[in-house]
Automatic annotation (TrEMBL):
<feature type="compositionally biased region" description="Basic and acidic residues">
    <location>
        <begin position="180"/>
        <end position="191"/>
    </location>
</feature>
<dbReference type="InterPro" id="IPR001380">
    <property type="entry name" value="Ribosomal_eL13"/>
</dbReference>
<feature type="region of interest" description="Disordered">
    <location>
        <begin position="180"/>
        <end position="206"/>
    </location>
</feature>
<dbReference type="GO" id="GO:0006412">
    <property type="term" value="P:translation"/>
</dbReference>
<protein>
    <recommendedName>
        <fullName>60S ribosomal protein L13</fullName>
    </recommendedName>
</protein>
<feature type="compositionally biased region" description="Basic residues">
    <location>
        <begin position="30"/>
        <end position="41"/>
    </location>
</feature>
<dbReference type="InterPro" id="IPR018256">
    <property type="entry name" value="Ribosomal_eL13_CS"/>
</dbReference>
<keyword id="KW-0687">Ribonucleoprotein</keyword>
<feature type="region of interest" description="Disordered">
    <location>
        <begin position="128"/>
        <end position="148"/>
    </location>
</feature>
<dbReference type="GO" id="GO:0022625">
    <property type="term" value="C:cytosolic large ribosomal subunit"/>
</dbReference>
<dbReference type="GO" id="GO:0003735">
    <property type="term" value="F:structural constituent of ribosome"/>
</dbReference>
<comment type="similarity">
    <text>Belongs to the eukaryotic ribosomal protein eL13 family.</text>
</comment>
<feature type="region of interest" description="Disordered">
    <location>
        <begin position="1"/>
        <end position="47"/>
    </location>
</feature>
<dbReference type="Pfam" id="PF01294">
    <property type="entry name" value="Ribosomal_L13e"/>
</dbReference>
<keyword id="KW-0689">Ribosomal protein</keyword>
<dbReference type="GO" id="GO:0003723">
    <property type="term" value="F:RNA binding"/>
</dbReference>
Amino acid sequence: MVKHNNQLPKNHFHKDWQRRVKTWFDQPGRKKSRRTARSKKALATGAQPLQRLRSVVRCPTQRYNIRVREGRGFTLSELKLAGVPRKQAKGLGIVVDHRRRSKSEEGQNLNVERLKEYRSRLVVFPRKAGKPKSGDAQGDDLTSHITRTLPGLPSVYEAEAPRAIESGEKDVQAFKALREARAGQRSEGARQKRLAAKAAEEAAKK
């Protein structure tokens, strides 16, 4: 027996632990089943795009914001500028993100052009054959070749061709200039406050 006033050990060694073990031996089979189900679903949807159209956004942080990727969805302002009604967007395969806000005009224009390109390629079949509604495709569009792939992501970064470094660029200290600009922006509010207080003090002396 252990010494001192300790808790009595309660070792439960008679549990039927083998009955509670969960295995995952069917992982490869389930993977194949999911792939087959996705293929059947894609074939059953006819000419519908395989994925929904999503917006183009910049990657976060200063390190990766040179790249673009697919976002969650388009903003309400982007839909309005592209002429896509908000309630019809879901039926057209367009994802809407009502929480996102367009922070830059360039990014907004990029997504508006993406929506317009998608709408120009979109072929909407009528619900009832021979009774098309406004916005439904008619005539040769219903029998033309249809692609199910979405428009790709635009290349927003253009790499510069290699060139010789100029004399003025050699004298510039980029790290120091960035630090000074950042420090000036950070202390701009305090500087303006000091100037206002000094101006008020001189006005009081007069």
